[in-house]
Prior knowledge:
The structure is a single chain. This protein is an all-alpha fold. It has 2 domains: about 1-150, Ferritin, core subunit, four-helix bundle (Ferritin), CATH 1.20.1260; about 160-320, no CATH class. It contains 11 helices and 2 strands; from the N terminus they run βααβααααααααα. The protein has helices at about 10-35, 40-65, 95-120, 125-140, 140-150, 155-185, 190-200, 200-225, 235-255, 270-295, 300-320; strands at about 1-5, 80. Strands 1-2 form a two-stranded parallel sheet. Helix 7 (about 190-200) runs parallel beside helix 11 (about 300-320). It is elongated. It starts with a strand and ends with a helix.
Amino acid sequence: xxxxxxxxxxxxxxxxxxxxxxxxxxxxxxxxxxxxxxxxxxxxxxxxxxxxxxxxxxxxxxxxxxxxxxxxxxxxxxxxxxxxxxxxxxxxxxxxxxxxxxxxxxxxxxxxxxxxxxxxxxxxxxxxxxxxxxxxxxxxxxxxxxxxxxxxxxxxxxxxxxxxxxxxxxxxxxxxxxxxxxxxxxxxxxxxxxxxxxxxxxxxxxxxxxxxxxxxxxxxxxxxxxxxxxxxxxxxxxxxxxxxxxxxxxxxxxxxxxxxxxxxxxxxxxxxxxxxxxxxxxxxxxxxxxxxxxxxxxxxxxxxxxxxxxxxxxxxxxxxxxx
Length: 323
């Protein structure tokens, strides 16, 4: 790899040309990824890609006038300390905010490159071109804003906001809710069975932690392997798996922690069990509220489904432990 300070004017122009070509392709990849979900924003990236192509043509014209038709085989990956692009565009169904932030980073890095490159050139025409491109890249946020005003009408914004909400539910709420339900409900039986079988807080705590962590690992892998998100639009499988696994563990740990009450305390078992019972009620009501808010389930119906189911599982654990 070459140091940036070692590049000739010819190599600087060659790197700039290849960079504009790649950035244009990246913007088109963003546009393709957004077309079905956010068509208005996709059109913004199409026009930004076209603008990068125009920059490439300007650079190519200057290069041919100065050095001829042959481009040396050098790209930004061949230069030490050069701007690097994270390959986020290889992922499908990226959040719109992530794509916009990535585009802003790309424009900022490109502006710095052109500024530094202009400082190193002695050819007046090349220096002017690179300086003009640095200014263009710096003002690209304003350009993007104008494009958004042109394409993102009020109805388009409302439609994209509805899509954003739907994607948030698919990618975050659903796996988190599934994990919280499983962790809060499925661990009730083993926890309270251990509690009433042993009347020992520490042993009950260990059983609860094992059940919570084990359920979190199991649910996390099950969610991650259920689908890759390419067809369903549910996003990264490993992100969903992580969210689901963490929420499953959290749901089980909530009513396990009260059993840290020292066994030496008077009535330690009943104190811990009473606190755990209150936490269970709070957990089940939180789950019912989330289902009502995000899953379009009537609140009373959600309460009946979750609370009644949780009470049945709790009773099963107590009966088994007290047998």
